[in-house]
Amino acid sequence: MQWDVFLSYARADRHRAGVLAASLQSRGLRVFVDDAAIEDFSSITGSITDALSRSKVLLALYSSHYPGRRACQWELTYAFVAGQREGDPLRRVLVVNPEAGADHVHPVELRDARHWPWPASGESLRQLTDRVSVYVSGLDTAMSHRATPSSGPDWLPAPAHVGNPRFTGRLSEQWLIHSSLLSHQTPLMPGRSSRIVQVRGMAGIGKSVLAQEYALRFGPAFPGGVFWFDLHTARDAGSKQAMSEYADQVATACAALGLNSGGSTLPMLLSRLAVIMGERGHPCLWVVDGIPSGLSQQDLHLLRGPHLLTSTLVTTRSLLHPAFAPAIDLMPLPEQDALRLLTFVRTPRDAAESAAAVALIHDVGGHPEALNTLADRAAHSDFTELRRRLHSLRSDLLAPTDAKNVCESTPFTSPLTGDQLHDDVLRLLALACPAPLSETAIEAILGSDNDRQGTPAGVRLAIEQLLGQGQLLPEPMTTRSWGIHPLVARAVRRHDLDPGRQEDLRRFLLYYLASPTATPETPSGTHRHHSPLSGALDLGPASPREEERTAAYNLQVELVTRVGYQQLAPGQGSLREALTSLHSLFEFTRGTLHGIALTATPTSDFPLIATTLLNRHLRPFLSRWHPALQQHEAQRPTDTSPIEHEQNWPRSAALRAELEDLRTPLKDIAHQLGGLCGIDLTIDESGSS
Predict the structure, then answer these.
(1) Cα within 13 Å of Cα(312), Cβ side
(2) Which of 29, 44, 116, 476 has a CA-to-CA distance to 507 between 20 and 30 Å?
(3) Among candidates 217, 159, 604, 237, which has minimal Cα distance to 409?
(4) Which one has a higher pLDDT value, 680 or 529?
(5) Is the separation of the CB atoms in 428 and 445 below 8 Å?
């Protein structure tokens, strides 16, 4: 039987789906509605694949539940890829969104195209049904004439990967990978045709699992096959060994295709594969999993798929290849997805266990491999007990349980190598975690150690090594500042074979943070008896010094003239200019605060006020909205002005609302600064001071 509409929906929306299906059927449309529950870990069953292939269009009831259902995403991907191979990825997909916002809708191309709200009345339901009917009448064929067999593409070298039943989340990352790899086929994404993307992240963050899930789910987009090369075994053996392992696996793929590979160099093998790919004429996916740091430009070039029909996906821990390919940095799992992974084996029994499970997620920083380990442990222990054991010093709950895993590099084992500066930088960052440290601060702290003085050049080299290993997390708001994941910090503190050195660095760090101009005490030197903060603590409140009054006045002037303090009228102004202005205020405040610290011990509340402005208000706001707007700006068509593109952003209203909410704390801080300097520039809504 041929179907006009395949209705795709999450089980939580079955009532709405029933209403929508009945209305469509009353219009004479043949609607496929799957009433059998499909578990999250299942791919599309044979009956679902068959129904999709014989349907003209997929209608997604895209509620907030839809993205979390793996089966729904498989169905959506099938229809999206079918349309993509016809020349328009949106041709076979319609969306009904019952939510107030559209941020949950992926991919981004679907948010504005044929995207209807949930009908609020019987009349609007009839209008929606008519629109679907008109659209379907314009399609002559079902999706089957473009779809690939349900068995999926060939996978070389064998065996084919089968997927991870615990995979959760990463929806936006999968669509971002797909949009990047096939942007040359997508008319909605002009100016982008790289055909290559790198997924970066620390050990255990889920790079390989994400690449595998993408290859399985989007396999129909690559009927020429998936070529998967795993370099993890050679990652720590050096670039020469890694390229040798890569060449061996390419030779295996050539042999499987009947190509003679004996005695051939890697360029020759790739050339033979390019010829056969061109003859077949089908798009392929070329995956290189686990590329090491330190590869030359020539080596990196050889990792690309050998033909223009190939799209290349690489995974790496290294942050040292930014020019090689556009990068997708894999972050820890958000709380909802992390909770789903942590409770995969057993769900919490009561409220106390649920609270302990959420606390565990934050303890391990949303790290997927750690959550997997804890999920296994939860089969024989409740979550409250698991958290107690996680923080126990007697044993390590995350320690590998078999000899094979002990040899692998994970965030649970010590990343210390025995190299002095490399290890000292890690120790400092572990002691400061979760706060980042600037490269300048690291150089100053290590340079103050008379016994093992660290030179700036040596510190920079150590940082480069750590970036290549994927150990560092760049601070997004500050250049040349770094942090580390809580699990790495935990491993350093637990498994350091030189705890005395760790204690020395702890004292150096505390003295530096207390007074950047103070000289830290050394283990063998004369101990200081005067704390750099003793004046503020022992002498009680004092009048602001002239430098502090001047700083308060200057900061107040900057604050009251910025967007954020001044109201941004609806539909007017530029959100980008507003964020740029607030970021400039952030930099000005931090510089002013640093200047006050350099002159003398503060005698007023200025440092506290300035720090509150930075860390409680500006930093959270900018960290949330700057990358969100930046991602939207990267998708601007060349024929659309920046202002028009910004106004079309579904989240612009939310950003404007939060800008308005930000005014209240900023006005309060400006008033406090006025009290310090004696000149209050704040003006209330009536126009008086």
Answers:
(1) 22
(2) 476
(3) 237
(4) 680
(5) yes
